[in-house]
Amino acid sequence: MATNLDSLEPFETDSLSNLTAGLKMKEPPVTTATNGDRNYRLEDFEKKKTIGTGTFGRVCLCRDKLSGSYYAMKILEMVDVIRLKQVEHVKNEKTILQQVTHPFIINMIWTTHDDSSLYMLFEYVCGGELFTYLRNAGRFSSTTGAFYAAEIVLALEYLHKQQVVYRDLKPENLLLDRDGHLKITDFGFAKKLTDRTWTLCGTPEYLAPEIIQSKGHNKAVDWWALGILIYEMLAGYPPFFDDNPFAIYEKILAGKLDWPRHIDPVAKDLIKKLLVQDRTKRLGSMKNGADDVKRHRWFKGINWDDVLNRRVKPPIVPKVKSDGDTGNFDDYPEGDNHKRASLLTDKEMKMFEEF
């Protein structure tokens, strides 16, 4: 399964931008930026292998020529970002990741751009996607599911306290580090919220009813998505699925859940309380917030301080041979490494001058 950089297809309903008028070549801007005591330059990094692809870019493993350390570099083509009307999403991703620090959220180290692409440098999380482990296992046991759900609960609690809604929780966006702990990645749909937002985005199977109905949504959508994720971890498939996105939306709005017999009844109770259509009555989005989720019986016996400090033993430890091992990621065609000439007008370049 490809590392998904976008999950955009069902929602891009606007007409595409006309990028052909008034084009001219420009000198590339300076691509040096500072992180702490280090002045990074694009030239410092040797690209080794593509480890994920999406509609308007790719993620590459790269090696820092100066330190020898490995990183993941997300490379987005500006032409495609504009064409798909993702400028604000990309800017939100950068701004939010600059402001957050959490054990279960990927660490962004540096960003820059040249005359055709945006670059985001991340820690390299070498264990691969939770999606891969789930598909290989078929389904997780209740204790394994609870381990991952607990780490996600703490990450969501932290984000929501920062007034950030994540909006793209799914197994493909959860990476395992070398020790087997989670890192939430891909903040392309994350947004700072003061009240509600109406942007239609996400992955069909994980959309909350209020997103589909365009009622305006808030942080409650992340708790709905957690309910979907727990169900998928324990059943091996999401509760609402179909080949047609619109059929998925109908099933979500109907709210009828089929329960595999093997699902732990206590986990089932938590899922039901997360998949409540009325967001004001949804666990996690009421007065006590995340505490209501943390106090649920499914998490009985969990020491939340131990979870936060990564003292709980992970159920799966990835096989990793070396720091730059890519064996836990799929293989992708490397594509054309030839530098694309800039197709951006001065006005379009200005959109990214702060990047």
From TrEMBL:
Residue intervals of the AGC-kinase C-terminal domain: 300-355
Protein name: Protein kinase DC2-like
InterPro entries: AGC-kinase_C (IPR000961), Kinase-like_dom_sf (IPR011009), Prot_kinase_dom (IPR000719), Protein_kinase_ATP_BS (IPR017441), Ser/Thr_kinase_AS (IPR008271)
Family: Belongs to the protein kinase superfamily.
Domain Protein kinase: 45-299
Keywords linked to the UniProt accession: ATP-binding, Kinase, Nucleotide-binding, Serine/threonine-protein kinase, Transferase
Domain of life from the UniProt record: Eukaryota
Key word Transmembrane helix present: no
Binding site for ATP: K74
